[in-house]
Amino acid sequence: MRTDKEMMVKGIKKLAFTILLMFLAPVVIWQAFKNEGHPFYWPVLVIGLILAIYAIYSGFKGIQIIVDALFGGNSRKRD
Fold first, then answer.
1. Entry pTM
2. Residue 78 has what DSSP assignment?
3. Which of 22, 33, 43, 51 is deepest in the core (most CB within 10 A)?
């Protein structure tokens, strides 16, 4: 059983993107709460919450891809 290097790189890229989102989402949410009187309060808050939820989802998917690459998951298609 070998490690699928292409899948591993894909998973690492996904986790790198997750780390970016994990820093970006709280900053956007903080900016929204800092400017509660601004007309764009709600849109910025919603965007921040969507980014936070996607960061969590992306983290789980990245870990799942890496585990599948290491242990040969069933979702991998062989030609």
1. 0.81
2. -
3. 51
Q: Under a CB-based contact definition with an 8 Å cutoff, are residues 55 and 22 in contact?
A: yes
Residue 47 sits at the vertex; the CA angle it makes with 46 and 48, to the nearest 5 degrees, is 90
The span from the CA of 51 to the CA of 63, in Å, is 18
List, in order, residues 6 or more apart from 68 with CB less than 8 Å away: 4, 7, 11, 75, 76
16-28 tens-digit pLDDT: 999 999 999 999 9
Tell me which residue has tokens 């780390």. Answer: 19
Tokens 């980014």 — which residue?
Answer: 51
